[in-house]
Amino acid sequence: MMRVSRLLATLVAMTAIMVFSMATVFAAANDNVDWDNSVIRATGGGVAPSRARTQAQARMMARRAAIVDAYRQLAEYVGGVNIDGETTVNMAEVTSDVIRTRVNATIRGARIIKEGVTSDGGYEVTMEVPLFGVSASVASAVMERPATVEAFPEPVPSVEPAAPSSVHIDINVGTGTTTPSVDTGTTGSAASSKGSSAASAPSGRAIGGYTGLIVDCRGLDLKPVMSPVIKNESGQPIYGYKNLDYDKVVSNGMVGYTRDINRAGRAGSNPLVVRAIALDNHNGNPILATADANRVLIENGATHFLDATNVVFLR
User: Which of 140, 139, 72, 71 lies closest to 110, judged by CA?
Assistant: First the structure.
């Protein structure tokens, strides 16, 4: 009986350690995925083995060990990236040898952005892999070209489109920063912020002139994913991977993620602003009120900002 109790205690302890380790790895992977800049970054460390004969050889061997360590970490972090709310890169690799080969090649193509000797005589190398890009990116490795491009849906005819709300942004081309001149406000009947175009919105028709879309998801615990879908409150997708040009998605991504509206320049100088009312698919997809979703579709028909992937999620 004593042996059984000890065995159970050991198993419980081992399980706890495994769970803790998995949670730690997952947290580390999330911390090392920079969604604002669309890169995955890892810093590897290495020390020279005692058999090194000269200082130069010791440095070279320590550097090599640091690079190997960075590659190992990158593989871990890339594997934890969510393609959508339910599927990670690791899951996609399990189902496809082709994807696994592409992902491995992408990791091997990581570039060194920083390196040097540490204060204790070791060596550190920081490497990064782009999430998006025509080649050597995670997107080019895991996102398959759809057979056809699906048209954007029509607005729901029984729901009056919301009066639009916009924020005018001064884009600093030289620095890549943006400066909003007004608050985002809200859409729908509550739209009353300064700078809103609500007063000139014809019922059921586009105002035009919108350069992009900002979906405000703050406070909803949005989870960044590579292939999000925007839906209306009935669950109908209004913006997704299959609506877009594949090469554009792989090159630029579908959306930009930021916590700071000052960095929402992807949506242009006059973006339409809507507020997500909820999230689904493990917090990866924003849900809009149907009236707001209708307005997005109507305005996209005029200026095609969705087609251009000029979309930013505030989180």
Answer: 71
Cβ–Cβ < 8 Å for 110, 74:
yes
pLDDT mean across residues, the chain: 83
- Closest residue by Cα to residue 236 from 293, 190, 161: 293
Query: What range defines the domain where residue 62 resides?
Result: 25-142
Look at residue 195 and tell me if it is in a domain. Answer: yes
Q: Any alpha helices (H) in the chain, and if so which ranges?
A: 2-31, 55-79, 89-95, 97-108, 138-142, 246-252, 290-303
Q: Let me know if residue 244 belongs to a domain.
A: yes
Q: Are residue 114 and residue 205 in the same domain, yes or no?
A: no
Look at strands 311-314 and 212-216 and give their pairing: parallel
128 shares its domain with 192: no
* Eight-class DSSP state of 261: G
Label residue 53 by pLDDT band (50, 70, 90).
Answer: confident
How many separate domains does the chain show? 2
Residues 117 and 31 in one domain: yes
Residue in the structure block whose two tokens are 């934890």: 80
Identity of residue 43: T
Specify whether the CB–CB gap between 84 and 91 falls below 8 A. Answer: no
Tokens (6 digits) for 68? 């190997």
Residue 180: pLDDT band by 50, 70, 90 thresholds? low
Identify whether the C-beta of residue 182 lies closer than 8 Å to the C-beta of residue 241.
no
The residue with greater pLDDT, 304 or 166, is 304
The Cα–Cα gap between 185 and 216 comes to 10
Query: Sheet harboring 111-117: ordered strands across?
Result: 33-34, 39-46, 123-130, 111-117
Contact 233, 277 (CB under 8 A): yes
